[in-house]
Structure formats: C-alpha cells, structure tokens
Amino acid sequence: MLAIKKNANLKSYNTFGLSVNATELAECSSLDDLIEVINLLNTDPKPYLVIGGGSNLLFSKDFKGLIIHPTIKGIEIIEEDDNHVWIKAGAGEEWDDLVAYCVMNNYYGLENLSYIPGNVGASPVQNIGAYGVEVKDCIEIVNGVFIKDGKLFTMNNVDCKFDYRYSVFKGELKNKVIVSSVVFKLKKSAKLNLSYGPVKEEVMKKGTADLQTLRETIIDIRKSKLPEPSEMGNAGSFFKNPIIQRSKFEELIKVFPQMPHYIISDDLVKIPAGWLIDTSGWKGKSIGGAAVHEKQALVLINKNNALAQDIINLSNTIISDIRNRFQISLEPEVNII
C-alpha cells in the first residue's frame, strides 16, 4: 500500500543532514507503488523529485512538491553459466549490501566499489565509480517505469549511454523515469583490479590478494579519508575529477610537475580534483557552518549546523579559486536541488 507523508522532514533522507521539508513524500516499496504514484501525478500534476539514499543531493531549500523514494528490496540470481552470474537487485537495496553479497559469494566486478553510500537504483544514474572501476562495467540491464505514462522499460548497457559520472538518466531521461531494479553481470573468476596505486600497496601488505582482502582494503581507505555521514554530514566526493585537453595538461605539468594525472586518451587527461583543492590550501577551511574536510579535500562537510547556502558558497568559492589558479573548471558531482 502506497504511503504518502505530508510536510515530511528530509533530514534523514540526505546525507548532508540538512533539515528541509517536502510538501509530500511517497515511499514506494513495490513496482505497483511506483505505478500508483505515477497515476497520482498524472491526475494531480505537481513538481516531483525521485531520490535514493540521498548521498548525492544538496537541498538548497524546502521542496514544494512530491518526493518519490523507491525502497524496492531484493537480491536474486536470475541466470548463471560456468563463467558468469546475473544478479538482479531492487532499487531500494543499500549499494554496499549488494557489494558485500557479491564478495561473500565470490562474484567479481563490484568489489572496487565497496562502501560507496547510496542505493542500487542510483548507481546507473550516476555511473558510480572508484579505484579504477565504474559500475557501467557490470551493468547488463536497467529496469524501471516512465513517469509520463507508467509504462515499464528495460534498457541494456548501450541504451544507458554511460560516460564518466553520466548516463542517459542524467541526460535526456532526467526526471522522466524511475529505476526499479538493476541487473548486473558478474564473473565467477577474474583478475583483481589493483590499478589504483594505494589500493595495490595496501593489499600487498596484507599478503593475500583475494576479493575479501580487496574489499576490506578499500573500506579501510575510504574510512580513513571520508567521514561517516552519521557523524559529520557530507555527500562524499563533492566535485567531479576534471578531464582536460592534452595540450592544456602539457602547459600545466611544466608549472606543476608533481601534478597527478591519468591519461584517458590521446587527447584527454583526468586530473584529481582533490589534489587541485588541497594544493590550493583549502583543507580545513570553512565558510559559515560548511568546511572542507581536513583529511580529504574533495569532501565538503556540514561541520557546524551548516545552511545549504553555506555549502553552496563554499563550493562556488573553491570553483572560482581553482579556475583562477589552474584555468580548470570544477563541476559539482552533487546534485543541487
């Protein structure tokens, strides 16, 4: 049965811990609930927003409309052969619960994405990634429903138009669909991805290079860098790592020879946003109740009962400073509503 709350406080629905309200909040625990809420929207049109775990959101003010929160659960094997297994997970499953399940059962592919906050339904939207892996590498199918008419859809990997922190769900289908479940194709045996230097170093120190050790290592690294949202409100990495032209990189590396970088192609180079911000002296600095985390410059935190505008002002000031220093434009990874 679809439950709709009136004048709902969203503090527990966003990892920044901002106390904002929504006119209405619909908890959808089944596909039938999603279709019901879509029918309600079509008979009584109003502004709406679909949210997952709230780990990639910054509410700038109260939301005058309907928040749709899919909470569909379930993790099941729907197919397997000698080399692969296909796992279907509900949009409302905690992302790291899915990763833990896969690692426990020796299914390879998602282990480098351990301990990323949020829900399964948001993973294809954002094309989440970490430590040399993006979720697009394992997504086979995305299932959901069109908001316009309540029709179901099934999209394959190509249909999703994945790119760096991007998918069709952030482009032409933004605010037009709701993801209900995702099917992942995982391997039963594979070589671990240790391409990210610090991960490889820590795994080698432990002496055993297996799925569980890699997962534990990544969790340890993330915990050492990223504050727990329950203790200090944050949305993880606030900025995307900028990708710049090779010609621009060649100019910068002459001035900043220590600049870390990752070659994307003959023409493109990725620069770590955290390094840019750290090098510019932003660690620990604050504006109002918002601050840059002391251990990870890529993370903005709700340090002292921050207002949304404090976080936005801090973000804008950092963006301006990086542009002036490096002629590089940072983009927020967080969605500002």
Describe the model.
InterPro entries: FAD-bd_PCMH, FAD-bd_PCMH-like_sf, FAD-bd_PCMH_sub1, FAD-bd_PCMH_sub2, MurB, MurB_C, MurB_C_sf, Oxid_FAD_bind_N. GO terms for molecular function: UDP-N-acetylmuramate dehydrogenase activity. Residues 18-189 form the FAD-binding PCMH-type domain. By secondary structure, this protein is an alpha+beta fold. It has 3 domains: 3-70, Uridine Diphospho-n-acetylenolpyruvylglucosamine Reductase, domain 2, CATH 3.30.43.10; 75-187, Uridine Diphospho-n-acetylenolpyruvylglucosamine Reductase, domain 3 (2-Layer Sandwich); 233-336, UDP-N-acetylenolpyruvoylglucosamine reductase, C-terminal domain (Uridine Diphospho-n-acetylenolpyruvylglucosamine Reductase, domain 1). 26% of the residues lie in helices and 28% in strands. The protein contains 8 helices and 20 strands. A hairpin with a 6-residue loop joins strand 18 and strand 19 (299-302). Helix 4 (197-206) crosses helix 5 (211-225).
Short description:
Keywords: Cell cycle, Cell division, Cell shape, Cell wall biogenesis/degradation, Cytoplasm, FAD, Flavoprotein, NADP, Oxidoreductase, Peptidoglycan synthesis. The chain is an alpha+beta fold.
Structural class: alpha+beta
The total of beta strands comes to 20
**Number of separate helices:** 8
Strand count, sense and closure of the main sheet? 5 strands, antiparallel
Portion in beta strands? 25-35%
Helix content: 25-40%
Number of domains: 3
Mean pLDDT: 92
Note the overall shape: globular
The CATH topology annotation of the largest domain reads as Uridine Diphospho-n-acetylenolpyruvylglucosamine Reductase, domain 3
State the end-to-end distance.
28 Å
Q: Which sequence of strands runs across the widest sheet?
A: 6-7-12-10-11
Catalogue the unreliable spans: none
Radius of gyration (Å): 20 Å
InterPro entries: FAD-bd_PCMH, FAD-bd_PCMH-like_sf, FAD-bd_PCMH_sub1, FAD-bd_PCMH_sub2, MurB, MurB_C, MurB_C_sf, Oxid_FAD_bind_N
Catalytic activity: UDP-N-acetyl-alpha-D-muramate + NADP(+) = UDP-N-acetyl-3-O-(1-carboxyvinyl)-alpha-D-glucosamine + NADPH + H(+)
Family: Belongs to the MurB family.
EC number: 1.3.1.98
